[in-house]
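Structure, all two chains, one model.
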Amino acid sequence: MITKDESNITRFTNLGSLDPAVSLLIDQGDRRQADARLPKLERSHKKKERERAQKRKPYRINLDLPLDLKKRLVTQAKFEGVPVSQLVAFLLYEPLHLLESKSISLWSYKIPSHCPKFECNLDLKRRAEEISRK
Amino acid sequence: VDLLHFATLVAADYLLIPTRLDKLAVNGVRDALQSLASLKRISHCQLAGILPTFYERVTVESHIQLTHLAQTFGRLALPPIPQDTQCRVASRFGKTLWEYEPDMRALWGYEAVGDKKVDGYLQVMKRVEALL
């Protein structure tokens, strides 16, 4: 909102940023206009794709995985003919259950984190070496 | 601009400028801001926001003018009020929008993402309440 300083000069603050609602509406309008220029078939494909993505949203999570692990997951998923996300979900059930029931612990793998968001990081390198030795 | 208009600007604490989303109406916003600026020595009135009205999400002109307002005034451009025929009908019956049709689009806005509503009078009232 506009505020006035001591010298009674009108000063605009935060004018650079947009109201989130307005920003969202403008983005939607831009997208709608871009879609309107597409051929009819492509437009309906895009619409369906967007609806599907919207439905999938509650189940989605972004993960940063070590590159070799990612490659192995993709290879295995291709080999088994299943989606990568389903393969990951399948593989996660057991270790997650073990962790929740305190049968396994992360304690020995924890190293201090320099990021203020997390207390610790996990030593994934060590874990990978241990597993490869088995 | 008449004397009553100036007197209102002097007496008011905040000014909310409604505007249709077409070129001439948006030019009128600039005139209203000039009036406000010309009275700054005797008025404490502050700009609460610019309220785009009669927003039609399917017309290109509405979109262009909303983008123009947002780029020029940033956060001061409030979420728009959708075009809604029910508003005109409500005034014929002498009722407020809430009394006539509490579910009308002008109050609740368009569906933006999923079932999330981001525009309409209710969104604007939230921002005005926060200001007061």
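Residues 99 and 105 of chain A are 6 Å apart (CA to CA).
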